[in-house]
Amino acid sequence: MLARNTQTNEAGRSAVLLPLLAHIADSENTPLALIEVGASAGLCLYPDRYGYSYDDGPVLSASAVPDALVMECATTGNPPLPTSLPHISFRAGLDLNPLDVAKDDDVAWLEALIWPEHVQRRDRLRAAVEVARRDPPLLLSGDLVVNLESLVDSAPADSVVVVFHSAVLGYVDEPGREAFQDTMRRLTADRSRPVHWLSNEGYGVLPGVEGAMAKAEVEVVRLFVLAHNGSPAARTGGHGQTLDWLG
Ligand SMILES: C[S@@+](CC[C@H](N)C(=O)[O-])C[C@H]1O[C@@H](n2cnc3c(N)ncnc32)[C@H](O)[C@@H]1O
């Protein structure tokens, strides 16, 4: 605990990112180049390799997946649920301290970060680690405020770039959050190449992105806000277990 930081990597968050990822892939009609800032071990970079069951419905997956890798997500507000998984041409992550799924010590730390009674999440982590071990992600060591743009430049030109992050900006100071937000506004406004920005962060963490929905205040503060290009799209459960679409 003295040597490490909180780097919980929750593959289940893919369930709340997937509807927007699929929507972007469909509307741009090109493969996705995924770039995750604050990627930890990169387990959220494989949304096309997991299975999904929304509201106990049928499992959507590209091929057979173990039960532990079926992300269950309860929704409200009629989100545009995907009917197929997006094609991903490139996956890369940036982190101050990337964790390596090939290192047992790093994986042991990820397991230690899961609350003891969350047996299902621990099974999911172990199964997601196996997915990443078969095809390790490109993970670069760097700061999201400083090193993002060169990574965006390295994405294949025939793909639409999606920069995303979840449970990250709470660890960044306010000037850093604002600088990152300015970078993302500039990148998404630049018409020379399409860039989308998905943020899934705690309520109030991203300046100006709050999300309107009548909920008891205590509930609101526990949920994350999922935003697309700076506009709130949904409230989400912190581990991807719920998706309250804002319409
Ligand atoms: C709680 S983890 C979330 C991991 C992953 N996004 C997920 O949802 O499973 C937060 C991660 O953000 C990283 N991080 C914090 N500040 C950062 C910064 N300024 N630049 C890059 N990564 C950062 C941490 O090292 C950690 O791995």
Describe this structure in words.
The chain has 247 residues and is of the alpha/beta class. The chain has one domain (11-245). The chain has helices spanning 14-28, 104-112, 119-134, 148-153, 174-189, 217-222, and strands at residues 32-37, 51-54, 70-76, 88-95, 138-141, 160-166, 195-202, 224-228, 231-236, 242-245. The chain has a 10-stranded mixed β-sheet with strand order 2-3-10-9-8-7-6-1-4-5, with helices on both faces. The model has no long low-confidence stretch (mean pLDDT 93). Bound molecules: S-adenosylmethionine (SAM). Residues 5-10, 13, 37-40, 44, 94-97, 143-145, 165-168, 171-172 line the site of S-adenosylmethionine (SAM).
Summarize the model shown.
28% of the residues lie in helices and 24% in strands.
Number of helices: 6
Tell me the strand percentage band.
Answer: 15-25%
Strand order of the largest sheet: 2-3-10-9-8-7-6-1-4-5
Quantity of strands, as a count: 10
What topology emerges from the helices and strands here?
Elements: H1 14-28, E1 32-37, E2 51-54, E3 70-76, E4 88-95, H2 104-112, H3 119-134, E5 138-141, H4 148-153, E6 160-166, H5 174-189, E7 195-202, H6 217-222, E8 224-228, E9 231-236, E10 242-245
Parallel strand pairs: 1-4, 1-6, 2-3, 3-10, 4-5, 6-7
Antiparallel strand pairs: 7-8, 8-9, 9-10
Bound molecules: S-adenosylmethionine.
S-adenosylmethionine binds at residues 5-10, 13, 37-40, 44, 94-97, 143-145, 165-168, 171-172.
